[in-house]
Design brief:
With 371 residues, the protein is an alpha/beta fold. It has 14 helices and 17 strands. Helix 1 runs parallel beside helix 12 and helix 8 crosses helix 11.
Length: 371
């Protein structure tokens, strides 16, 4: 994207900061946020190479002015489920392409049929969703046939207020369904317990809890790979966040997204991580036919910071923008899974990956990160 100007919305947040640091040496940036002083401070850290603009997402003129002249607008601001397609529409109206680390199904539904010919809009280009839909494909590629797939996502870390609000807003916006699985192309109710103790070699500690939860990203994954039986799980460690979330999910939908519940989620996540090392974990297990015989295999990825992981995926997308197909897409369905994971591991050397491949496989070099 030589000569392109990249507009970064939410630039000085934890995700936007990672995107800015990775792109600044390579591309021209415009940094935007409500607090111009914080954006200026970030610019100084980047070597004063960016254009800085004060930006109010809820002011149409401010948003239009920010997007004007940009080749690509990257949205790292939140809560994603409150912003929805506001930034996307402003970017498209200004003649820019659009990349969203969130976006998810509500934004896709609003933009379907609205993207001009030849333009690109990429949604769910972060860790979860995003890398969570890319990563399982790497293991599946080594199978001639996938009979069953189980996907896990979770970790240990303090939620920000924005992340907690997005979490609550996603409960009623079609992001997924609790206690559901995938059978022969259909969403079905799970018959197992709502909470299952999990013992796996790839868990950092024993005693984690797995809660069946089928996201819409997993539904697309299972459909794309023609998986007959699929299941998604949210992983929790420590118990406080899981218990608080269960209490909130038991309340009426209109009563969930309140300041009190947002604060309760933030506090619960802080209690879980107190005195412990934060991490984010993605894992997948596959049963199927590999090397001509029935096999089981698992793969996992563990990183220390979900925001940096999200920002790294978004930066990879921006650097490979011209290789992506035109139109409206979810990142997991169009990214080069191997190239994305290799780049993320280079940028985040503390990330540990095991892909369940034998020596000599195309991805064997990544397995140097196995703990």
């Amino acid at each position: 994207m030589s000569g392109a100007l990249i507009g970064l919305v939410g630039a000085y947040g934890s995700v936007g900061r990672q995107v800015a640091q990775l792109l600044a040496p390579r591309l021209a940036l415009r940094l935007g946020g409500r607090d111009r002083q914080q954006a200026e401070q970030l610019n100084q850290q980047l070597g004063a190479c960016a254009d800085v603009r004060a930006l109010d997402l809820w002011d149409e003129q401010s948003l239009a002015s920010f997007c004007a002249g940009c080749t690509l607008v990257i949205n790292c601001a939140g809560p994603s489920y409150r912003i929805l397609d506001r930034v996307a529409r402003a970017a498209l109206a200004a003649g820019a392409d659009y990349l969203d680390v969130g976006g998810d199904d509500p934004v896709h539904e609003r933009l379907a049929g609205q993207v001009p010919a030849g333009r690109r809009v990429l949604l769910s280009a972060g860790m979860l969703p995003g890398l969570s839909g890319v990563f399982p494909r790497l293991l599946a590629q080594s199978f001639q046939r996938v009979d069953e797939m189980r996907c896990y996502a979770g970790g240990l870390g303090r939620l920000s207020v924005t992340a907690a609000e997005d979490f609550l807003l996603s409960l009623g916006n079609g992001f997924g369904q609790a206690q559901c699985g995938w059978r022969e192309g259909q969403v079905v109710r799970s018959t197992g317990s709502a909470r299952q103790p999990l013992q796996r070699d790839w868990l950092p500690v024993a005693g984690g809890q797995a809660y069946p939860y089928l996201s819409t990203e997993q539904q697309r994954l299972f459909s794309d790979l023609q998986v007959p039986h699929g299941q998604g799980f949210n992983l929790f460690e420590g118990g406080q966040l899981a218990a608080t979330l269960q209490r909130i999910q038991g309340s009426a939908p209109e009563a969930r997204n309140t300041p009190q519940n947002i604060a309760a989620l933030v506090q619960a996540s802080a209690l879980d991580v107190a005195g412990r090392r934060p991490y984010q974990l993605l894992a997948v297990e596959v049963d199927g036919l590999r090397d001509g015989r029935p096999q089981q295999a698992s793969a996992w990825l563990r990183a220390s910071d979900g925001s940096r992981l999200t920002g790294s995926v978004a930066a990879f997308c921006a650097l490979h923008w011209q290789q992506l197909p035109p139109g409206l897409h979810y990142a997991a369905q169009v990214l080069d899974a191997q190239a994305c994971l290799e780049q993320v591991c280079q940028w985040l050397p503390d990330t540990r990956v095991s892909l369940g491949h034998s020596a000599g496989s195309p991805l064997a070099e990544l397995e140097e990160g196995v703990l």
